[in-house]
Amino acid sequence: MPHNILTRYADMALPPTDYALHFSACLQLGFIATDAATIAQAWQAQAARSGNGSDWPDAPEDFGLAPWPRAKAFPACPRQLGLYAVLPDAAWVGRMARAGVPTVQLRFKSADAAAVEREVRAAVAAVQGTPALLFINDHWQAAIDAGAYGVHLGQEDLDLLSANDLDAIRTAGLRLGVSTHGYAEMLRADKVSPSYIALGAVFPTTLKKMATAPQGTARLAAYARLLRDYPLVAIGGIDTERLPAVLASGVGSVAVVRALTAAHDPEHAAAELRGIIHGHLGLE
């Protein structure tokens, strides 16, 4: 967490095992109630485990995260997915894959099942001959049928899946990414042991209404320390100016939407973003 938040928390001089006081303090620091409860519980666990009640909790065991390896984890993906383009249709997927974007996601919104199936198959075909890894947003059955690399699910979509549905995705060998917007959702995502976890929205975004305020890079860094065993994708309002601070948080991938689709020259924008990311992460 940023120095000023840590200082404010330390100045409160809270008893390390007093849940109610820690919960209230987290609300004062701007966390929503479910996240405040999650942090307060972790604070108590940290104090009981180590006797340390002064550091911001970031040990996986204090949040109840199971150790790795795990028997029913989804297949692994690269820890550093690099530039991750979220795109509206198969034509954009192919265009950005040919431009050298290493990870692409088809976010195709339609209630027409036949149209979804066609677009997913077209996206799979569009990345053929490129090294791009293709994730399909939401449409997991179509992704399985078309042979996509992976699926990305939001929290609401994850809640709708049964254990059998998750087993079907895992058995098919597809990677799974899950969106999160704070501590409580990170713990929910961890329960299914996905291939990666997405963290956002880092900055304000106009693309969708968020249940939480923008997380900022300080919280992002705290999340990265907690989820150190996962590949992590930062998303939400990220552009070239904000990119270095995002990468400094410890994430291995940065997802963008409008930074590419609204760019005057998307190929040039992709090359610029990719260059910054690869330079920071030491990728080839």
Structure description:
The protein has 284 residues and is of the alpha/beta class. It contains 13 helices and eight strands. An eight-stranded parallel beta barrel has the order 1-2-3-4-5-6-7-8, surrounded by six helices. Helix 5 (113-126) links the parallel strand 2 and strand 3 (133-137). The longest helix is centred in the first third of the chain and has 18 residues, at 33-50. The chain is globular, with a radius of gyration of 19 Å. The model has no long low-confidence stretch (mean pLDDT 92).
Helix and strand arrangement:
Blueprint: H1 3-11, H2 19-28, H3 33-50, E1 82-87, H4 90-98, E2 103-106, H5 113-126, E3 133-137, H6 140-146, E4 150-153, H7 155-160, H8 163-171, E5 175-180, H9 183-190, E6 196-199, H10 216-226, E7 232-235, H11 243-247, E8 253-256, H12 258-261, H13 266-281
Parallel strand pairs: 1-2, 1-8, 2-3, 3-4, 4-5, 5-6, 6-7, 7-8
